[in-house]
Each structure stands twice: as C-alpha cells, then as structure tokens.
Amino acid sequence: MRDDDDTLDSLYSIGELARRTGLTVKAVRFYADSGLVPPTDRTAAGYRRFDVHALARLDLVRTLRELGLDLATIGRVLDRTAPLREVAAAHADALDVQIRTLRLRRAVLRTVAERGSTTEEMRLMHKLAKLSDAERRRLVHDFIDATFGGLDANPEFVAMMRSAMPELPDDPSAEQVDAWVELGELVQDADFRAAIRRMAVHQATERAAGDDTGLHGALTETVRSTVTAALDAGVAPDSPAADAVVDTLTAAYAATFARPDDTALRTWLLGRLETADDPRAERYWHLLSVINGWPRPESLHAVFTWLTTALRTRV
C-alpha cells in the first residue's frame, strides 16, 4: 500500500512500515534485524528509519515469504546473486511435489473413509502411497528378481513384467491408491512370491526340455472362447458332454507344442495348469491396470478352473 504523500525523501519508522504493509511490528523488526530490509538512516536517539525503497523491499520480502521461500533464498534474490526467474522456477517445482503429496494424502484419506481402515492399515497405506515412482518400480523389480532371478524362464513374459510398472497419476483416485496398496502388499507377500517362483521354475524346466515357444496368445484365446462357450451352455467339466471340449483343447495344445495328443500330454497339461492355478497372479495384473488406468483384463480364472477340473476327471 502507498499513501499519496509518499516521496523519495519520506522516512518511516518500524511502526509506520508495519501499518503500510500490514505486517506486525515484530515481523518488520525481524526482517530489519536479519538484514533483509536494512535501515536507510537513524535518528539522533538511534531509532531506525526507512525510505520508500526499503518499503518496496519489505513488500517483496512479504510476497516471497508468502510464496514459501526461505530467508536465505530471499536474501540472495534481493542481493541479485540469485536470479528471481530461476528461484521462482525451482520453487514452482518444489510446490509441484508438495501439491502431489497433498493429493496423495487426500486420496489415502478418502480410501480410509470408504474402507473403514484401522490405524495400522492407514499407516501402511500412507507409507506405500507416498513412495516415489522410482521406489514403486524398485519394489516391483525386487519382486520380479526374487521370483524369476537366476532362472531361464519365459524371457518374453519377464520382459513384459519389467515393462509394466505401477505409475500412480499426480491426482490418483481412491480406487487407484487402494489398488497400489494392495499390489504393494501382494509383491511383498512371501507365500505369493513362492507361488510365482514355482511357476517360474516350471517354465524354466519346460524351456530346458525344448519348449521355446514363448507366449501363447493364440492358444489362450482358443481356450477362452472354447471353454466360455461350454460354460454358457451349462456343460459341467466332469460330464460326458465335456469330452468334445477337452478333445478340442488338447489337440490345440498338441499342435502348439508339437507333441502327440495322448495321455502323457493330458497329464503334462494338467500339471502345467495346476502349477499356474493361483488367482493372485491374475489379481496382480488387474491391480496394475487399475493403478495405471489401463483397460481391465478379462478374468480367465473360471475358464482355466473348468479346464483343470475337466482334465483331472479324465487323467
């Protein structure tokens, strides 16, 4: 604020500066004592007096403080040893981090409100939610290293897992925070890690035996469409009507893996399905899709459960 009678020759006391800027006398005195707003002159009694330039300098100090800059940085700006443009850019970046943190906290609180979480669950949720992108990726990479490390398993699948990392948006929804917390717990679960490790060992064993066919997208689609049709028709996996469905699928597996369609193939296929029969593996990809805002993958748990049961009653 400026009065009409302000001139370059006007000198103000600390109290007058406080009145004109809206600051407290204590705050003005603090800025003067710290050297940010040095006095222009002193009275015969030693009282400090400030000119209009000091008043403008104090206005700038107040503005920069309201923007969150620390006193040392403000001093460098005022002394022109730090360009204001660079300081403003750096501070804007810092504010981006603070805003993102506040958004995460808001999302956590919303999730807690919806779930009715305990204090311990809230603590864990906040701890996992505030991890940086790099820390989230490291947590998942540690899981992949622990489950697939040292094994010549399916390289295409492992590469796909390493490329599909959880990336929480800057303003995540409560559902996304909830999904990340569940995923963070899942990849650290010892039992889940052991289950995925068994799958990886099984894959590595098959590759050592000559199965180098990689991912089997076409085969999976054949199983999905064939078994889904059987489910829609109400065909029970242990019924005679399921024989034709099983024959169709074992023939597809035999063609894909270049093996005879015989009892040995069915026994091998049953072992393969039972090794991979853990719904948490499918849950992993579902949670990842929620976090990253990807289309939710179709659940194939019922499909492979049907096929596993059908094979088990026939082997």
Question: Describe it for me?
Answer:
By secondary structure, this protein is an all-alpha fold. Among the domains are: about 15-80, Multidrug-efflux Transporter Regulator, Chain: A, Domain 2 (Orthogonal Bundle), CATH 1.10.1660.10; about 215-310, no CATH class. It has 15 helices and two strands. It has helices spanning about 15-20, 25-35, 50-65, 70-80, 85-115, 120-130, 135-150, 155-165, 175-185, 190-210, 215-230, 245-255, 265-275, 280-290, 300-310; strands at about 40, 50. It has a two-stranded antiparallel sheet with strand order 1-2. Strand 1 (about 40) and strand 2 (about 50) form a beta hairpin. The termini are far apart. Mean pLDDT is about 90; it is low at about 1-10.
Termini separation (Å)?
90 Å
As a percent range, the share of helical residues equals: 55-70%
Count of helical regions: 15
In total, the number of strands is 2
Low-confidence parts? 1-8
Fraction of residues in β-strands: under 5%
Average pLDDT value? 88
Structural class assignment = mainly alpha
Main sheet: strands, sense, barrel:
2 strands, antiparallel
What radius of gyration results from the CA coordinates?
A: 34 Å
Order of helices and strands: HHEEHHHHHHHHHHHHH
Task: Give the strand line-up of the largest sheet.
Answer: 1-2
What best-fitting shape do the alpha-carbon axes yield? rod-shaped
Features:
315 residues, mainly alpha, Multidrug-efflux Transporter Regulator, Chain: A, Domain 2, two-stranded antiparallel ribbon, 15 helices, 67% helix, rod-shaped
